[in-house]
Fold:
Amino acid sequence: MTDHFQRLGLKAHVDLDVAALEARHRELALVHHPDRQTPGDAKARLRAAEETASLNEALKTLKDPVRRGVYLLKLHGVDLEKDEAGGSGKLPQGFLAEILDLREALEDARAAKDLEKVQTLARQIHERQAGTLESARAALRRLPAADAIAAATPLLAQLKYFTRFLEEVDAIEEEALG
Amino acid sequence: MKGLLQIHDPLAPKGHVVGIDLGTTNSLVASVVQGKPVCLAADEDESRLLPSVVHYGKDGGVVVGARAVSLLSEHPTDTIKSVKRFMGKSLADAETRKLGAYQFASGEGVVRFQVAGGQPVTPIEVSGEILRALKRRAESHFMGKVERAVITVPAYFDDAQRQATKDAGRLAGLEVLRLLNEPTAAALAYGLDKGSQGLFAVYDLGGGTFDISILELTDGVFQVKSTGGDSALGGDDFDRAIAEAVLKERGLTSPSPQQIATLLQAAKAVKEALTDEQVAPLVFEEQTTSVSRAQLDAWIAPLLQKTGLACRRALKDAGVKAEDLNGVVLVGGSTRVPRVRSYVQELFGKPPLADIDPDQVVALGAAVQADLLTNEARQDEVLLLDVIPLSLGLETMGGVVEKVIPRNSAIPAAVAQVFTTFQDGQNAMDVHVVQGERELVEDCRSLARFRLSGIPALPAGVGRVEVRFEVDADGILKVSATEQTTGVKQAITVKPTHGLTDEEIEQMLLDSIDHGEEDIQKRQLREQQVEAQRMVIDARKQLKENGDLLGAAERAALLADVDALEALAKTESDHLKLKAALVALDEKAKPFVELIMNRSIARAVGGKSIEDVARG
Structure:
């Protein structure tokens, strides 16, 4: 099966030029999009739709550094998505309790409509996200070394929680916009 | 320019193709002529705008356009304007209850207007009359057949509204090559005209709808980054705001349909006059009210704020800031109102572009797309990559929505998600597909339900079902579910018969803002309830299999605790209390769990107890 990197003609690596990635996606979309097929050829359109959907999925996955990292791990046999609890088994001790506390604090801030508190919490998570992402990337650069996989796994499992947390922050901010 | 040459145009062997902007207030038809899109007029002296007004005469005759407008105040109930607002609607929709002069036939399903000269007519038929008039106009221009068209729709139109628009095209004898989103059409007109590159916002405020889209134009690809809007907000609402203010001022509490129709026309006239004047007179029933621009600005302020909210959301979804934009394109007649322009400028921090006539720009873009889709010589020029406007998801345990394809995802799209079975020996799984932004199923729109049966008997959590969502380039969703160990598969193509109404989309979006907090609490409670249910099932199973490890009294006590938790999960509304009960039971069961673990380890290492292993 073609992986996302292969589909976009890129080397499977943690460091990726996003502008080049997008340009490559556009180039391929121009060839494979259903609108580029002979009008009336239903079979070609269907194939084209499948191919374009895969291209869109590949772009979405590789563009985001966390998704890209999780995907790289998957290519090396560690599937954080498959894990029922979203990779919670791979988390360092105490992390889950800590993130639960932070989320509770976020909920309290939301209930109190304390946007400043929400933003303080978001900044805190952003910082940790940046630090963790840097470490994860450093580990992923050493792939396929076995210890690289072991080092990157708990970091990416944590990053997924940070992403989820920041999505919640987005929802709260959107609420506040109204 | 009509000439024989065009009839023999070798690039148009199947007749000419046109782009049609089927607007709330006005409609236009355009076509690419000698490489350039132009709007077509029936006669040299006739306007390119065809008022979207249809009059039904007592003799059964149908009049469309300017002549129908002149019949409006005399025959308010037999003359339908703004029919676009009723596309895909039923009588129950709030849209049909807004201030207006129509008479509706009673009945279920699609709304029907009671008009002179026979049977009630549906919005699809009324729109069909407008499309037929435009088709005739194009045919007389080209002196040849016109059978294929790209028709534009607001990006926010749902499936029912799109289907209704397509049906109207068919009624008019047109093959609809593509329903094109209006903002995308506008960008297409601007992009090709100027060969621009960069990031654009299209602010489209028409007679009845508002759309905002963020698009990026790069290397021949138009990529829609995000889209949003309000499918029931437009210039008609400005007129209504003026009319309501005048009614209030004059103490008119129950105006007749005729009075309403006349007043709305006067309101529209004063709104248009205020584009150039600071003060303008509104004449209604031989009485003149002076309306100032400042008054108009104040009346429409709440409406503009609604557009601002949608714009901020669209920017956020696109992951860009207002200052990243290279330009803001204005579309729609309502953007002529000075306050709208200054509001857009404040919102985005730059003066908006309006060099293409905002009334024509959508039709011109539709003509370009029609040409791109049919003219092989142009196939490699430009490509449109569009997105879905509302999130698509699945119902999971406890009625919580799991989003599978979030709003503003590029289409075509295909996403698979794996779900595990919840109970031992579970042999079927219900798949419930929903659309919307809210967290709970009951607050989203149900699109389809089906059941995957024939799952082999496996312990809870072991059965794995992959649910796959596929959205094609036309936005049609197909869902399939496959049990992974056996390959048992069920699939369904989601074609909602009614679709979401505007009001529902609007309501859903408003609700997701108003009830965000409530949602989170409900969601947390549901999560705890599911957790409790899992624990109850698991504990009972373990007690059954390993209960012999406990003394009779201990076993009975634990069973009672499990029953108590099951009961509590059904009645407790505070998720924190339920969570506390869960933790307590978990704590109580720990010694038992340890015994079970010892036993299974012992079994695994061949009959030795854990102490033996440690010592050995």
Q: What stands out?
A: The domain at 516-612 of chain B is CATH 1.20.1270.10 (Substrate Binding Domain Of Dnak; Chain:A; Domain 2). Chain B has 15 helices and 26 strands. The interface with chain A takes residues 218-221, 223, 309, 312-313, 316, 372-374, 379-380, 383-385, 409-415, 418, 420, 461, 470-473, 513-514, 516-517, 520 of chain B (CB under 8 Å).
